[in-house]
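Recap slide: Pentatricopeptide repeat-containing protein, sequence and predicted structure.
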Amino acid sequence: MVSSISDKLNTATKKILLLRHCVFFLRCPEQYIYHHVLYTTGTATSYNNPSLRNEISSKFANRDYSSIFSNSNLTYECNVRMSELGRLGKVNAARKLFGEMTERDAVSYSSMIALYLKNNDFHKAEGIFREIPDSKRNIVADSAMIHAYVEAGKIDEAQKIFDQMPARNAFSWTSLISGYFRIGKVDDARELFYKMPEREKNVVTWTNVILGYARNGLINEARDAFDQMPAKNVVAWTAMISAYFGNNQVDKALEIFYMMPQPNLYSWNVIIKGCLDGNRVNEAKKLFDSMPWKNVVSWTTMVMGLARNGMIELARIYFDQMPNKDIAAWNAMITAYADEGQMVKASELFDLMPTKNFVTWNAMIDGYAKNCQENEAFKHFVLMFRSCMWPNEKTLTSLLISCESTLGVSQAHGLVVQLGSHPEMEKIYTVLQDKLLPLMQEKAYENAILPAMQ
């Protein structure tokens, strides 16, 4: 079978690669071997074939190729395999391979840390980091953990690693600077930025400084940093636009936008959204009409912005013109109609909507509740439940609070029956008890609710 695999290899290089992987599986745990060989040789679809696995194993089980490759080469192979498992989302398999490696290098530790961080498992990443021998520490692992500590709000831990680094890269500098801006320590961030070697400052660093100043309300400092940038790309331009919008300076944002050499689609969408949020509807319409190209985000931004500004009919015109409607656009129109009490139009769109989420259901239930159509509100609540969506706190608040004056005993009983297996049933009962019972005949509701809960 090995020869049949080799027949598929049409170059000497691929034959050598096959040999390397066969040697690799003599050293690595069995469960990682066959797939790696077959994947490399283009026969990965046969991975689950027991006879193929047995034949490959028997061909090489009694041969010793260990002298051909050094441990460092085998460590490299394991690192490659670990990265592949990470790309496939097989974290446990990667961790098992990492644990069974006879020798690990700096890349091994860095790869495992990166994999855990990618899967939002900070504590395990931290555990691997603390296991690294001093001789295996490298700039990649240190920088990754600095960024992770910053994201976790542990700026002191990040600073400690930073201080211990023999050499630093732009990522480690930028992560720590951003961390100080994030917690409002602007002076520390500024001092660190001034200490950063000029050769390490890249567009990401400058952009983070601009946004850091802006988010702390220092818009003039943000503009100074922007003006000092040696080279600006579209990300930096857009960051400055966002900074002005975040500080309610729409005219300044427009000024920067019109100065941009080549705005991209994201920049166009940002400027349109900012104008709509700043109640500059005419400016937003003019910009939208002059866009060289539009995507679904562009259209949805217009629909949502016009709806928020109370221009429902104009929003509907843009909505109807959309080539492809996403769920956010549907929800924006339904919510706008519901907020205005136009439940017939909201219901028409609701029935046409191909896919619904919590926002959709809550908009309908809340709209009916606010318009004293408690029967329709309760009906949609039941339909939501039957659609395999658990109601959340907003759903319950809309249904119970808005309809508290007319919700009947039978509906309260039906509500609890429908929610009998809800994971937060006790919380739901507390809402019922706290919000409804003081306003109505407590005994009647308890007679309806308590048996249903049992």
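Residues 1-48, 59-70, 439-454 have pLDDT under 50 and may be disordered.
The chain has 28 helices and no strands.
(End of recap.)
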